[in-house]
Design brief:
- The protein is α/β, with parallel strands linked by helices.
- It has a single domain, classed as Rossmann fold.
- The strands form 2 sheets. It has an 11-stranded mixed beta sheet, with helices on both faces. Strands 3-4 form a two-stranded antiparallel ribbon.
- Strand 12 and strand 13 form a beta hairpin.
- Helix 6 crosses helix 7.
- The termini are far apart.
- This is Alpha/beta hydrolase.
Length: about 400
Amino acid sequence: MVKRVLRARVFIWLALPFFASGCITPVEYGDVRHIDYIDNARCQPEAKSDGTFIDQPYFVVTSRLPDCRTERVTLLNHRSDIIRYGRFAAPQEMAVTSAKGKTKNVTAIPFSLSNNQQWWDDLSREAQQHDGRILLYVHGFKETFFTSARDSAQISRLSGLDIPMVHYSWPSQGALLKYATDETNMYYNERQFRGFLTRLAQQPWTKEIILVAHSLGARLVIPAVEFVDRNSSSEDSSNISNIILASPDVDRQDFERDIAETVLTTRRVNNDRRITVYASAKDRALGASYNIHGYPRLGRPDCFDPFEAAALKEKGLPERCYASKTKYDTPPEKSGLTIIDTTEVSRGRTGHSDYLTSAAACTDFMAIINGERNRTTGREETRLSHVFALSPVPKDKRPDDSIVCRRDRN
């Protein structure tokens, strides 16, 4: 408890200058009427011939407001009341012309809006060519379309799967001090995302959805999966079978209380539904979220109960507390929940994206995407049967994180 109070005081002390200087401000409407951004035929594209998007292999669904004033359509941080569909490619050097007519070379995401029906037809064709499997990514806090699309392309490369990559992009503000705005926009997107996920899951050609959510995006994903499950016409598990939550900014107790009754019921687990959570005690972003919300996050193993922490310390164990394994009246034949602790292999200043920055975490993440349910390589058992820790690697034998995680653009 003392540590938590000290963390809270440090957080408040660090945040005071921002509050005092007025850096935390409401979202500005801007100098352009929102209707003027979309008042162009580019925002309502017609169906085009096959091969139009051959250089933009990835699919995107977005609730961001597009700027269609110039030939190169971009996605803004404002929210839209409808979702739109498009295609994109990995980041590359491009000559970009602004709305004021100025051109400069920048690293950008090649992006095009797509006709809605054409988008679904294209996805259907590609999915059927790859056994009906689809990889769907939902980003988290502090992302722009550029950063989240870049991560989507990296996840596709890292997976090694030749299946359609779909990215759901909601209007995160891409700014550290806009967390409250991101939370607001995330909740505003619940209806839009669950509608899209329901439609995707109900397509006759969709056989398996591998669903990856990062950070705040996990709060979009879990209730949406619950909604799809409730409205599934099939008596068996829905085809959302492999759910991966990376650094989830989710109330851990809320997850524990509800998950067994909804997403991980015995029937769904026995039909191969599983959830893998990546968590780290070095995740500073979720440490701040803990201080803001008052309760531990699913993606960070803080101990809320000081007596539990003291008992672990007395046994010589790390003071780390995790979401408990779900309880069933009739236990399933398989294991539905697995938690991977990346603390010892954490990378980056915040430790909030180990699955894309740490070689050990990337390797494990890649295996889970590929369906290795009973993976043991690189993992160490812990005091809990459903929790594993990734083994630290000596500095002299540490692999190149960038190469292993395939952070290159090509």
